[in-house]
Design a protein that fits this description.
Elements: E1 2-7, H1 10-20, E2 27-28, E3 35-40, H2 49-60, E4 66-76, E5 86-92, H3 94-106, E6 121-126, H4 130-137, E7 144-148, E8 150-155, E9 160-166
Antiparallel strand pairs: 1-3, 1-8, 2-6, 4-5, 4-7, 5-6, 8-9
Length: 169
């Protein structure tokens, strides 16, 4: 499966890694694995990657860069997919939410995590106890703000980027 992600700046990855040290029972995302998911590129037609990328690039035409802020540490006690709890950096970005909504209109939203249920975030770690996650969410963080000036097509099978698109597209 492919997705469209926003790369996170080093300051955000460093913050996530620092917080993960306080979650010894959980499995952290390692540096280089921190991303901000915009939309999983799922549809029933199962097109080739080249076709999928071309379709997304067409949808992104004119997409401006947008601001993003990491504002706090939060957690999902019972994530709809994968190991729980999930400790994450909460993200505020109206531009990101608009872009997700536009892409969800073109590509089937993944049930329980996209569309209306979309919660923009950067995963810090998965697993451990809910109490540990709750304590992590009490931590105050200095907000980090940046401008998303590129998006990355991500191959989940190989956990690596495939290509990028600069914004404005």
């Amino acid at each position: 499966m492919y997705s469209l992600n926003v790369p996170v700046p080093g300051r955000v990855a460093a913050l996530a890694s620092d917080i993960a040290r306080d979650l010894p029972e959980a499995t952290p995302r390692t540096r280089g694995e921190h991303t901000l998911g915009v939309k999983r590129l799922v549809d029933g037609r199962n097109p080739s990657y080249d076709h999928l990328e071309a379709e997304v690039r067409e949808l992104l035409a004119g997409q401006p860069a947008f601001d993003i802020s990491v504002t706090s540490v939060e957690y999902f006690a019972d994530a709809p997919r994968g190991t729980s709890p999930v400790v994450y950096l909460a993200v505020e970005s109206p531009g990101l939410v608009r872009l997700h909504r536009d892409l969800a209109a073109a590509f089937d939203p993944v049930e329980d995590i996209e569309g209306e249920e979309y919660v923009p975030h950067v995963t810090i770690a998965r697993g451990g106890s809910v109490e540990m996650a709750r304590r992590a969410a009490e931590r105050d963080v200095e907000p980090v703000t940046w401008t998303a000036s590129e998006l990355v097509f991500w191959d989940a099978r190989y956990s690596q980027p495939v290509s990028t698109v600069s914004l404005p597209a």
